[in-house]
Specification:
single chain; 158 residues; alpha/beta; Cytidine Deaminase, domain 2; 5-stranded mixed β-sheet; 5 strands; 44% helix
């Protein structure tokens, strides 16, 4: 995938991105879902599956939905951040985001904010780091993460 870095102007940030991100944050609670995407056209998509599968599916099958969108997610690790960056989202909010995810989004030119920045995303069992984030740790770009995430999803039969 070709990397396109988009820098937002102050006007775009103030009048388009911030209101859309605020709306996505509100909907994250109202819709009781794992992730909310508000597209450039204002269309709202809610995701309900755990992990990165919904973002991966969107990136592979409907990448235009992510392009220029804002995303509110409950938890963002480096893998999810990579998928969002590859989809060219404009901004990301998360309740919990790993330092690696914040760093990757910053390098990829995506505005990111979170309530709680953590050292690592913990796996569902609470016994260690999230497996997707572990896979993506050595990667320095979002593009490097994609084949690792794709392989993980195929092994899990998701």
């Amino acid at each position: 995938m070709k990397k396109i870095t988009r820098r937002l102007t102050a006007l775009q940030l103030t009048f388009i991105v911030e209101p859309a991100l605020s709306r996505a944050r509100e909907l994250l609670d109202e819709l009781d879902c794992s992730c909310v995407i508000v597209g450039r056209d204002g269309v709202v998509t809610s995701c309900h599956r755990r992990g990165v599968i919904d973002l991966f599916d969107l990136l592979m099958n409907n990448p235009g939905m992510l392009d220029g969108a804002v995303v509110a997610d409950k938890v963002v690790g480096k893998g999810a951040a990579a998928l969002m960056a590859l989809g060219h989202v404009a901004a990301v909010y998360s309740r919990v985001m790993s330092r690696e995810a914040l760093s990757l989004l910053s390098r990829e030119g995506v505005m990111a904010t979170c309530d709680n920045e953590v050292e690592e995303i913990v796996n569902r069992a609470g016994t260690g780091r999230c497996p997707v984030e572990t896979l993506c740790l050595p990667c320095s770009t979002a593009a490097e993460c994609l084949p690792l995430i794709e392989s993980f999803i195929r092994r899990q039969n998701l």
